[in-house]
Amino acid sequence: MWHKLMRARKELVLNNNSYPGETFTEMDIISNLILMYIGGAEPVSDTLGFCLHDLAMNKYVQDKLREHIKEKREKHGGEFTNDYLMDLHYADMVLSETLRKHNGSITLLRIATKTYHVPDSTLVIKKGQKIIIPTYSIHRDPKYYTNPDVFDPERYSPEEKSKRPSGSDLLFGDGPRFCIGKRLAELEMKLGLSEIISKFEVLPCEKTENPVQLANAGGAIRPKYGIWLRLKPIVV
Ligand code: HEM
Hints:
A hairpin with a 4-residue loop joins β6 (about 215) and β7. The chain is mainly alpha-helical.
């Protein structure tokens, strides 16, 4: 990805003959690089940290995930292939539930491109109006998620997901500005989970907070004091 952006700089800024209609500045390329770096690194490591914390607090889910990983590893001959990672359905459910509870991005921001009458209501969103979509609150609304503080990956089984209206799951956003790194993030997180959960039991330690205290990080949220856990090697 870095390589592609460096190539974009070379082709679109320094030597812009290929797309005469498009003008890109050095700043466009630099800001995209920064967005890739911030958007690509921190949400993945924060989500994995929160996920391990939830697993330490929910032993039943952790054990079920470990069994699932073991079964899928055996099925795929112990290889870390794309097929193996795509087959980790329960890990997907665990990670989605982690993101529902602890998504670093707490709102989505939009500007209306045309005037829109919200169906069955008197609400009119005018063209040009700025809109804040409160994803943190939506993901914790008991109307869609009963007992929202409870960590329950079963909410993301295909049956449960199909019961919720569209727009109630905005873990990676929605529409044309949907997160471009979703698939990469999911692969990275499943690879990390698979390695850690198959080799270690994740336990709380004396420094573990529950719930984890949060800090405002420029419109996003992050663990205020980090996430502290104990990893106990699994001896087979
Ligand atoms: C757990 C990991 C991640 C989460 C929870 C996450 C979440 C999000 C969310 C909620 C948005 C806003 C989408 C919208 O407005 O509809 C977004 C946008 C974006 N994400 Fe991610 N993201 C993650 C990982 C990544 C990774 C790994 C990359 C890149 C390698 C990435 C790159 C981006 C970019 C470039 C945008 C802006 C897209 C646009 O405006 O068109 N993200 N992400």
